[in-house]
Every structure is written in structure tokens, then in C-alpha cells.
Amino acid sequence: MESAIGPRDWTARLGRVLGMKHAYVGKISSANHKDKYKSLLSRTPLTGMNEIEITKGFRASLFGAETVVRGVPILVYSTHIAGTAKADGSAADFIAKSVIPKSKASSLVLLGDLNNLLGDQTLNRIEPAGMRSTWSDLGIATTRLSSHLHIETGKESGVIDHLYSKTASGAKAIDGGVIYNAFNPLNEDKLMPRYRGEWEQFGKPLSDHRPIWAVLEFPQQ
Which residues of 137-165 are buried (b: 16+ CB within 10 A; e: fewer)? Predict the structure, then answer.
């Protein structure tokens, strides 16, 4: 039986396994959950760590850090916001109006669980604010995929996890997708008291969200 570890210990532990020794964990727990923090791992040093609180929909935040990869300075923001059909006053609207335009970073990356589908009114606020979706870059039909399997019902939610890059940076996604085989070994026991029955019925994933990934190519500065 695996012993319980905190989110900060878990992030550092994962970083050691992946060879990514630079880690940053936010301080604002999303969706009123306990210890549900966002993390950044990097092979290159992280500086300028900061967190922007969002009170639209539910308590959430964008948290980010700056790094330099092959001479290109990049500001990365990770977030987890509430999904909603109404764009006005949503967390996505807040990001589009109050975060993206105020960022002075020449290369900005926004990623995370945005809880809405590409083309929804809420996410339609993000790209006009100066961002481009990796799904669009890659020509991936997200209507045929899903990045989230609801633990209790086994229902697919579609692609609700996204990665955007700043259009003005000239960055473009050249590869990426949804990882469908991120599961714990079937016979491995895990601490999952609340959802144990559901996880055993639908499979024991590493998370109820499937990992998404992308390779971004930035012009040399």
C-alpha cells in the first residue's frame, strides 16, 4: 500500500523520476478542493514565480513562472477553471481581458484544465485576446477525442484540457495529442477510498484527466 504524500513532495518526486529538477507548486487550491494545487516541472531553471487569483465561477488561479529554453524566454501559466456556457463574467473571460493583454512576455504559454470544449463561447474569448490553440495548429479534430473520463459515471467529457501559445511570438505546435494509455498497473493497489469501485470498473488511471502534450517550435530570437 502506498503511503500518502503531500502535493509538494509528489511534484518533487515526479521531477526526480523525469529528470526535471526545477519545480514550482501553487498555493491556491482550485475548485474549493483541499490540496488541489497546480504544478510546473522544468529541465531549465524557473524564475519570476507568481500566482493570480481568479474568483469567477469558483476559487481558482493562474500560476506561472518564466524559463529560458535554447535562448528563448518563455512565460508559462497553468490553470484550472470552471466550465460554463456563459462567457461574460467567466474565468476564461477574466483571463482574456485581465491577464493576456497585460502580460509583457514576448512568448506566453497558457495551459490547463479549462473545462470547456474548443469552440464554446467561453474559450472563444481566449484566441481573440492574442492566443492560438495547439489543437488548431495540429489540425486535430477534438470532437473525436476526449481528455476527461468522469470517474463516477464513466462518461467522456470531450477535450477540456488545452494549451495555447501567444500568436505574436510566432510559436507553433508541430506535434501533440492526448495520451490514452496513462493507467496504473491493474494489479497494483492504490489509495482511492472514495472512488475505488468506479476506478476498478472503468480502469485505474493516473488521473481522471488524460495527459495532453504538445511540442512547440519558437522562432530563434
Answer: bbebebeebbbbbebeeeeebbbbbbbbb
